[in-house]
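User: Once you have settled down, look closely at the record that follows, taking as long as you need, and be ready to discuss the fold:
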Amino acid sequence: MQKVQFRFYFFLVFVIIFFAGPFLWQVITSLKPASELATLPPVLPSNPTFENYAYVFEERPFLRIVLNSFIVATSTTFLSLGIGSLAAFALAKLEMKGKSVVLVLILSASMFPSISIVAPLFVLVRALHLRDTLFALIFTYTVFALPFTIWVLTNFFKSIPNEIYLASRVDGCTIFQSFYRIVLPLSAPGLFSTAILVFIFSWNEFLFALVFTATVASRTAPVEIALFPGIHEVPWGEMAAASVVVTIPVVVLVFLFRQRIIEGIIMGAIKG
């Protein structure tokens, strides 16, 4: 019994180190002075410094960049949930023919790799005079996030007994009232889980942000960090500091809503 417990805890520690190790090493690197960045073997900083963080915020418009990322990720999340929840409700609860076909068609839209459609999307964005705007990113991210959102929420809505929905209709609720008074509150864990995943996708997306943006006015954090290296040097310390700053909001978000996320995963597992 003790041997089994030892193996379990050993495996648990290994998993924690495997997933948290890279982030912790980024934190350590961000606190190192430039003279210790290339030290072999790698060691902890002898004299921790916040110079790298000062450079990120004082020498670069990184606060504006982070704000851009937040606006894009938040807007995409709300739009995806707003549109996706309505579509998922219709597919899960309303009587209509061809629902399975519609769901398959929606999912098939997400099968195209981003790199294969970035060129035509760029032409469209430029023709609409939306290049170098936050709206171009919000629109693109929402289109890519909607198939996933609809698929996940459809399964969550299906897990709610039809008797509850039908009872609300008998009591006089309209379809929309049943949706936002009955179905949405009961699906809160699923909504939170989906929102977190959509937010993380929008926060970390790189390809479209690189192609569609040109200035600080609309540039997001992943693209800005990629532009840190110069011709003759790579500022590892500054890049590590910027990476830590960008990662912290996601970590805090997951930590604050961890209970909802766990509930959503459990609901999905039970449904499956």
User: Anything to note?
Assistant: The CA atoms of residues 37 and 236 lie 7 Å apart. The chain has two domains: 1-49, 62-271. The first helix runs from residue 2 to 30.
